[in-house]
Hints:
This protein is mostly helical. It contains 2 helices and no strands. The protein has helices spanning about 1-20, 30-65. Helix 1 runs antiparallel to helix 2.
Amino acid sequence: MKLFTLILSGIAIVLIIYNATKINFDMLFQGESVVALITIFASLCAILLLQILRISKKIEKKSKGK
């Protein structure tokens, strides 16, 4: 599970970097910039959810050990 979350987090980081290059700061909320901003936000949400999953698995593992 840890490898799965690390791979997906890596993919999300690559998407953030790629889409950051697509942002046109002159027309931030028009055209391709909007798509890039939405994709960056979605990637950040995915990273957050994967971190929550990883932490919940650690908690589950510790609670089963008691």
